[in-house]
Design goal:
With about 400 residues, this protein is α/β, with parallel strands linked by helices. It has two domains: about 120 residues, Aspartate Aminotransferase, domain 1, CATH 3.90.1150.10; about 250 residues, Aspartate Aminotransferase, domain 2 (3-Layer(aba) Sandwich), CATH 3.40.640. The strands form three sheets. A seven-stranded mixed beta sheet has the order 2-8-7-6-5-3-4, with helices on both faces.
């Protein structure tokens, strides 16, 4: 089986699993206790916190808060700021192409009386800093823009938006500041991420997107950012996120993200070469196909193609029968029959939005595997088009 759905999840790497095993067996103490074994567990959590902070160039490890998933981190950032600062403003700006964790968090706040502006994107899935500037109001308290799109791979101009907000906040003052959050779950470990250079106050990460375990994520919250806890309980995570720490998961995430950062530059360069070659081959060999997302400003290992006149579900099933695992979009909505909200926001009609294929590379993806894909994909598309009432030949 050739696995090409690494944007959906990645394999738990052996080094991360090995690091986790100790804390799943003999060293299983609760890090909040005061005996010796607990101190050892707490030290392991703190070491992982330092590794996550280093991956995004955070100034202080205590700006990293571990969560149960990337989705929790996203929800905490958006809802936590809204609930904490809703007394001075109830306007939030986000985009129409966010991951559903962000979109649904925003829509849940909408039901609570917050006013949400969903910025449209251009044909490449890009939202521009000028759009954010035009949407800001006196009662705006949060801007939420993902760093890299999970479906089409487009990388957003986060640094430009951050600079815009920094200048505006200097004029508005701290009491009226606008907080800036980015969902960087698809970006961290794949492209450089520096929270200071980006100008963000909050940033979400997920362990299982960087060859770590599922069930663990992290939220970067810049020092001084006040936000309401999403999960109440004990005094874990410095009193801001209740629940006994998932020590093994946190250790595994720390080990995985450290290795991902060490390998990132070389792996990303290799992925870009394979990505560009694969896109060119598909568009040349298969007529009525189009690239989705920005042609150059995109994640190194993301290829998203729409094939007209057919549905992505059929492509996936036939690829699976040939030994290829791929996706038609977000793994979180793979069971849905609805077309991608990202592709619809980019202007694709419903019938074309149904015919997308997302191929996302991992650290073990080989060019020879992509060559094999190119041997079977044109035949699969031709076969499905022959059965399609939309295709005239």
């Amino acid at each position: 089986m050739v696995y090409l759905d690494n944007a959906g999840t990645t394999a738990l790497r052996a080094e991360a699993l090995n690091a986790m095993m100790e804390f799943m067996s003999e060293n299983y103490a609760n890090p909040s206790s005061i005996y010796r074994g607990a101190g050892y567990a707490k030290a392991a959590v703190d070491a992982a916190r330092e590794k996550v902070a280093a991956a995004i160039s955070a100034a202080r490890p205590n700006e990293i808060f571990f969560t149960g998933s990337g989705s929790e981190a996203v929800n905490w950032a958006i809802k936590g700021i809204a609930l904490e600062h809703g007394g001075r403003g109830r306007h939030i700006i986000t985009t129409a192409v966010e991951h559903h964790a962000s979109l649904y968090a925003a829509k849940s706040l909408e039901k609570q009386g917050f006013d949400i502006t969903f910025l449209p994107c251009d044909e490449f899935g890009m939202v521009h800093a000028e759009q954010v500037a035009d949407a800001i109001r006196p009662d705006t308290i949060l801007v939420s823009v993902m760093m890299a799109n999970n479906e089409v791979g487009t990388i957003m101009p986060i640094a430009e938006i951050g600079a815009l907000l920094a200048e505006l906040n200097a004029q508005r003052g701290n009491e009226k500041r606008i907080y800036f959050f980015t969902d960087a779950i698809q970006a961290v470990g794949h492209i450089p991420v520096d929270v200071t250079a980006l100008g963000v106050d909050l940033l979400a990460i997920s362990g299982h997107k960087v060859y770590g375990p599922k069930g663990v994520g992290a939220l970067y919250a810049k020092r001084g950012v006040k936000m309401t806890p999403l999960i109440h309980g004990g005094g874990q995570e410095r009193g801001r996120r209740g629940g006994t720490e998932n020590v093994a998961g946190i250790v595994g995430m720390g080990a995985a993200i450290e290795l991902a950062m060490a390998e990132m530059d070389a792996l990303s360069e290799n992925h870009r070469k394979m990505r560009d070659a694969l896109i060119a081959e598909i568009l040349t060999k298969i007529p009525h196909s189009r690239l989705n997302g920005h042609p150059t400003r995109r994640l190194p290992g993301n290829v998203n193609i729409t094939f007209e006149f057919i549905e992505g579900e059929g492509i996936l099933l036939l690829l699976d029968s040939k030994g290829f695992s791929a996706s038609s979009g977000s793994a979180c909505t793979s069971g849905s029959l609805d077309p991608s909200h990202v592709l619809l926001a980019m202007g694709l009609p419903h019938e074309m939005a149904h015919g997308s294929l997302r191929l996302s590379f991992g650290k073990d993806t080989q060019k020879s595997e992509l060559d094999k894909l190119l041997e079977v994909l044109p035949e699969i598309v031709s076969r499905l088009r022959a059965m399609s009432p939309l295709y005239s030949g």
